[in-house]
Specification:
268 residues; alpha/beta; Rossmann fold; eight-stranded mixed β-sheet; 11 helices; 8 strands; 44% helix
């Protein structure tokens, strides 16, 4: 684990492996630990950099507002500080928003791009069902942090994973609860994501993405429905879609071997 001072803030990160550089960008409220199964599984083939987004983990938590453009700039600044001229960019959920904007704003720095469990910006996205939104709202009202996180996680993961891997559920829950996180930073991340999904009309720009792109979705994703990934793969010129069966929103955690195989075959 390490930190580096960039042009605008200090960023926490973890580096491992040897080979072409890969930047791993986490989703809303998750630190770099979310990628532990990729750091372990892919280190023989790539130099992997898992980042803490601003507001979470060991990265600075500046006062809000945040924007996805700000967070894409953070990735650029990190790469500059590490003297990385070009890298593969992998983002999940909110990290997928960041990866899209990075690919559009800094095309010479983005080699191949992987977009997992995510959607484009603006009104073209497909929202979760009203049932899922209602359950997320109920979860958010729980005062106890562990009960709140557990209720949200149950909606985030595929039902089979939840029912059949209780030890993994507890480990995931504890990693989430034990990570450093600034309350205002997580809230600012959430607001940045909401603004991107509702108002940042990147759907109209996705045809300008130059990078070869792999779009990955879990077919049981209730947070970002799979139709979003289908649409991304249609809009980005050099994109292909992979659906992971019986998998929810955290594809890299629920099916790490399959996810790692997809990344290896696409990036190598």
């Amino acid at each position: 684990m390490a930190k580096i001072k960039t042009e605008n803030l200090e960023i926490g990160f973890e580096k491992t492996g040897n080979g072409p550089p890969v930047i791993l960008i986490s989703g809303l409220g998750y630190g770099r630990w979310l990628w532990e199964k990729q750091l372990n599984g892919l280190e023989p083939y790539f130099t992997l950099y898992a980042l803490d987004n601003r507001g979470v983990g060991e990265s600075d938590a500046p006062q809000p507002p945040y924007s996805i453009t700000d967070m894409a700039r953070d990735v650029r600044d990190f790469m500059r500080a590490m003297n990385i001229k070009e890298a593969h960019i992998v983002g999940t959920s909110l990290g997928g928003f960041i990866a899209q904007v990075f690919a559009l704003e800094y095309p010479k720095m983005a080699d191949r791009v992987v977009l997992a469990s995510t959607t484009g910006g603006g009104s073209g996205g497909i929202y979760p069902s009203s049932w899922t939104m209602f359950r997320l709202s109920l979860a958010g009202k729980k005062k106890d942090p562990e009960k709140r996180a557990r209720a949200r996680l149950r909606l985030t993961l595929a039902p089979d994973f939840w029912d059949k891997t209780p030890r993994e559920i507890e480990r995931l829950l504890q990693r989430f609860l034990q990570q450093p996180a600034a309350a205002h930073g997580v809230k600012a991340q959430m607001e940045a994501g909401q603004n991107y999904w509702k108002r940042d009309h990147r759907w109209t720009s996705l045809h300008q993405v130059r990078s070869d792109t792999l779009v990955i979705t879990g077919n049981r994703d209730r947070i970002v429905p799979p139709k979003n990934s289908e649409k991304l793969a249609q809009e980005i010129p050099r994109a292909r879609l992979e659906k992971m069966e019986n998998t929810g929103h955290l594809v890299m955690w629920e099916k790490p071997e399959r996810f790692n195989d997809l990344l290896y075959s696409f990036l190598k």
